[in-house]
Amino acid sequence: MNDRTSRSASDDTKTTAARETSGTADALALLEADHRAVEKLFDAFGKSRGDERDTLEAKAALAQRACEELTMHAIIEEELLYPAAQQALPNDDKLDVDEAYVEHFLVKTLIAKFETLKPGDKGFDATFKVMSELVRHHIEEEEGELFPALRRTGCDLAALGKQVAARKQTLQGKLDQAGSRAVGDKT
Fold first, then answer.
1. pLDDT in tens, 133-177
2. What angle do CA 16, 39, 170 make, to 5 degrees?
């Protein structure tokens, strides 16, 4: 049994509370919150069944938001977390970071497919399902291996958390300014 499954819910709550310093969560707690948010989007998409117009619109909105969240999250991890991890981790743990970059590349490739795919198109649901499975696997590895290894290094996760929060705010602001397009909308 791994460390993650052997902890109780109250231990997780205490750990998360301990990671929050002066109102700002540490970097890993912020990234874990992103993970939970995208998992909720995946779950909601999985519950959307059928080809009715309302269902297709719901799938479009869920896929859109998931792609936006994943894109922001990948930028933050690649610009801030992974370089910090490469510096802080011993050589034998750096493979986890290399794998994470490859997984991001694959997810970004699938996200790009949604620029042309529309809900109801052949392959839309399958692409979203594969993307969600890949992301869930990535989350499991990060939270089960990379994040604990990074915590053991003594890396200043509170300072990194401030950078992560600021970068996310900047990216979300740019997204808000640009306005969201529906998945498959090339206009």
1. 999 999 999 999 999 999 999 899 999 999 999 999 999 999 888
2. 70
CA–CA distance, 70 with 55 (Å, rounded to integer): 22
Query: Is pLDDT of 17 > 50?
Result: no
Contact indicator for 49, 169 with CB cutoff of 8 Å: no
Q: What is the pLDDT of residues 77-113, one digit of tens each?
A: 999 999 999 999 998 888 889 999 999 999 999 999 9
Residue 26, CB half-sphere, CA atoms under 13 Å: how many? 15
Considering the entire predicted model, what is its pTM? 0.83
Looking at this protein, which amino acid is placed at residue 164? V
Helix (H) or strand (E) holding 24: strand 24-25
CA-CA-CA-CA dihedral for 140, 146, 149, 155, to nearest 10: -130
Count of Cβ atoms closer than 10 Å to residue 30 Cβ? 24
Q: What are 184's two structure tokens?
A: 């498959």
Q: Which domains does the chain have, with CATH numbers?
A: 25-177 (1.20.120)
Burial 54-79 (b: 16+ CB within 10 A, else e): eebebbbbbbbbbbbbbebbbebbee
- Cβ proximity of 145 and 38 under 8 Å: no
